[in-house]
Each structure stands twice: as C-alpha cells, then as structure tokens.
Amino acid sequence: MTRHSVQVGFLGIVVAIGAVGVWQVGEARTRRTADEVGLAVGQRSPAFSALDLRGQQQTLKQYRGRVVVLHFWATWCGYCRGEIPKLLEVYDHSAANELTILAVSIDQDAAQLSAFVEQATLPYSIIPDLQADPPIANIYGVRGVPVTYILDRDGRIAFRFYGSDDLIDAVNWAVANGIAV
Q: Model-level pTM?
C-alpha cells in the first residue's frame, strides 16, 4: 500500500464521518422542527380540514372529547395492509369507547383508493390526501407509511409511532386515561 492510498483512504473516512455528522445535525434539526409545530407527544396536534371518501368534512376539532386514531397509510403498502385488521378491531369497539378513526391515504389514484376501500369494506373514515389542501401528510411531516398518531380527548398527541406497533394497547391506554400525557 502506498502513502498516497493511505492518505486517500484516510480522507475517505474523514469525509464519511463528516457526512454522518451533517446527516445527524440535519436529522436533529428536522425532529426539533417537527416537535415545535406540534408533533411531539403531549403537544396539541395540528388542525386540518378535508373531505373523506363519503364527502363528509373531517376536522380534528369536531372530535374533541373523543380519542382519535389518525393513521397515515397507502393501498400499495404491505405494512399498511397489515394494520387494517388492528384498525378494524379498534373500530369494532369505537362507539362504546368514544373513539374515532381517521385514515389518511397518501395514494395518488383516487379511483384505485375508492375501489380498494369498497372491496375491503373499510367502515372508518378514509381521507384521500391528494384532495386535501394543504395535504395532511405535509402538515404532519409524513415521509413514509404507516404512521399513526393517537390523540387524547383534548386533541393532544398521546402516542406517535412509525410502522407496525401495538396499536390496540396504545388505543386502550388512551381510552382508559383520556387525558393529555
């Protein structure tokens, strides 16, 4: 190994470490910004207003006093499809528990989304994000799906998780406690 190759190798390591440092600073800045706009557990969730697939206006304000499961998903996402049985189980107990499910789909094809929802007979409110202005996924900083927020009765974020998690236990906790954490 020549002296030149050792210097190039060392330089590559320094550049790589620098890149990781920049990524971590950017990641921390992104998290801090998200928390500042109301996306941290305990903060009031950002407001939105959008039509669901049934043409009903959906806002968080109308569900004040109820626990809300705000679920971001897509029909093409395998993990999202895996969450549907959990959402259906939660929905089956929603009337007695004063709970509402709002599923925000990031699908880009409204017809495909409608066909999927009809075939799967999803009973909870589905909001096509491509028709929302501004998109709800943008308001919540969603970069991938599934992402789920569980909001307490006061409209504060009780849980936030990415991917598959124990939705049922989190919902049961929020319903039992019903207050900001």
A: 0.77
| C-beta separation of 45 from 139 below 8 A | no
| CA neighbours closer than 13 Å in the CB half-sphere of residue 43 | 14
CA–CA–CA angle 156, 162, 165 (5° rounding): 90
CA distance 102 to 20: 37
pLDDT of 18-57, one tens digit each?
A: 433 333 333 333 443 444 556 999 999 999 999 999 999 9
Strand pairing class (67-73; 147-151) = antiparallel
Please give the Cα distance from 71 to 87 (Å, whole number).
Answer: 9
The predicted pLDDT at position 176 comes to 86
H or E element, residue 115? helix 110-120
pLDDT at 170 > cutoff 90: no
With CA atoms as reference, report the closest residue to 176 among 98, 69, 61.
Answer: 98
Question: 153 and 69 in contact (C-beta within 8 Å)?
Answer: no
> For residue 162, what pLDDT band results from cuts at 50, 70 and 90?
confident
DSSP per position, 22-87? HHHHHHHHHHHHHIIIIISTTSBPPP-EEE-TTS-EEESGGGTTSEEEEEEE-TT-HHHHHHHHHH
42: left (phi over 0), alpha (psi -120 to 50) or beta: left
157 close to 42: Cβ distance less than 8 angstroms: yes
